[in-house]
Specification:
This protein is of the alpha+beta class. It is built from eight helices and 18 strands. The protein folds into three domains: about 90 residues, Pseudouridine synthase; about 130 residues, Pseudouridine synthase (2-Layer Sandwich); about 80 residues, PUA domain (Archaeosine Trna-guanine Transglycosylase, Chain: A, domain 4, Roll), CATH 2.30.130. The longest helix is centred in the N-terminal third of the chain and has 12 residues. The two termini are about 20 Å apart.
Length: about 300
């Protein structure tokens, strides 16, 4: 089985599910999962997890993201993007760049965003977009999202091209809609490009055709990020050989169970997370240090027990 993460460039016209289906055919295995949906008309970064790496799908979904979007002022649609039915059109004559910048920048920080009806969220076991297509509108609870930054790239009324850094769960088309409402002209999202998901960037992403080419030539490993590579920002711990069983079983362990660290290295901080390995270099999982108890406790196990038994 192939284990690892691919940084896919999702092209326009594909759903995230389509990408997974195509990859299953390309690499010849079923165990594949994506890390968060992108609308069919949106493009950009979509990390896809293969094999054991599917265990990190939820962790990658939780990462901050960066988008480049075009906000179209003066037009309101039922889907909050340009593909929807136009509900209202207003003139943007007299709109100034200063007013637009002030309104857009007021959204930097935390704000309560109501998910759109045309979304994959479920209410009563049914996806919102399915209800919307039936002509139904249901009450949705707003949720707190964080807009870390909005950088204006270009203003050419009625269009504003902007780069948005945001938290998980943020709908950029809803942000465009809300800005339009605040501005008084209405607005919708004309285009969307996701340029970053956590450590995965646009410049490193590959189209499905490129992945297929690498696979056919036996070079898939060159573009596959290893499972522990997702946690490269965490410190590394290696268990002493005689205490490796603690990690294998997901048990807590103490500092004395760890191979001696370099002299002068910092003591672990409370709640600090680490990648844990055995002396053979096998990635066991992610542990968190609890200072009060003086021990490391399992947060997420990634070791394949069957593989461990085969290698023992």
């Amino acid at each position: 089985m192939i284990n690892g993460i691919l940084n896919i460039y999702k092209e326009k016209g594909y759903t995230s599910h389509d990408v997974v289906a195509r990859l299953r055919g390309i690499v010849g295995q079923k165990k594949i999962g994506h890390t968060g949906t992108l609308d069919p008309d949106a493009e950009g970064v979509l990390p896809v997890c293969l094999g054991r790496a599917t265990k990190v799908c939820d962790l990658l979904t939780d990462k901050d993201k960066t988008y480049e979007a075009v906000l179209l002022l003066g037009k309101t649609t039922d889907t909050q993007d340009i593909t929807g039915t136009v509900l209202d059109e207003r003139s943007v004559e007299g709109v100034t760049e200063e007013d637009a910048l002030e309104c857009i920048r007021s959204y930097i920080g935390e704000y309560d965003q109501t998910p759109p009806m045309y979304s994959a969220l479920k209410v009563g076991g049914k996806k919102l977009y399915e209800l919307a297509r039936e002509g139904k509108t249901v009450e949705r609870k707003s949720r707190r999202v964080i807009i870390h930054d909005i950088r204006i790239k270009e203003i050419c009324f009625p269009r504003i091209r902007m780069e948005v850094e945001c938290s998980k769960g943020t709908y950029i088309r809803t942000l465009c809609h809300d800005i339009g409402v605040s501005f008084g002209t209405g607005g919708c999202m004309e285009s969307l490009l996701r340029t970053r998901v956590g450590r995965f960037n646009l410049e490193d992403s590959l189209r499905l055709s490129e992945v297929e080419e690498r696979t056919q030539s036996g070079r898939l490993s060159e573009i596959l990020l290893t499972l522990d590579g997702v946690f490269s920002d965490l410190g590394q711990i290696v268990l002493k050989d005689r205490y490796a069983f603690l990690g294998y079983n997901g048990n807590p362990f103490l500092s004395k169970h760890v191979k001696t660290q370099k002299e002068g290295s910092d003591a672990p901080r409370d709640a600090e997370r680490f990648r844990v390995y055995d002396v053979q270099g096998r990635f066991i999982g992610v542990y968190k240090y609890e200072k009060k108890l003086g021990q490391f406790r399992l947060e997420k196990m990634f070791l394949d027990q069957d593989e461990l038994r085969r290698q023992s």
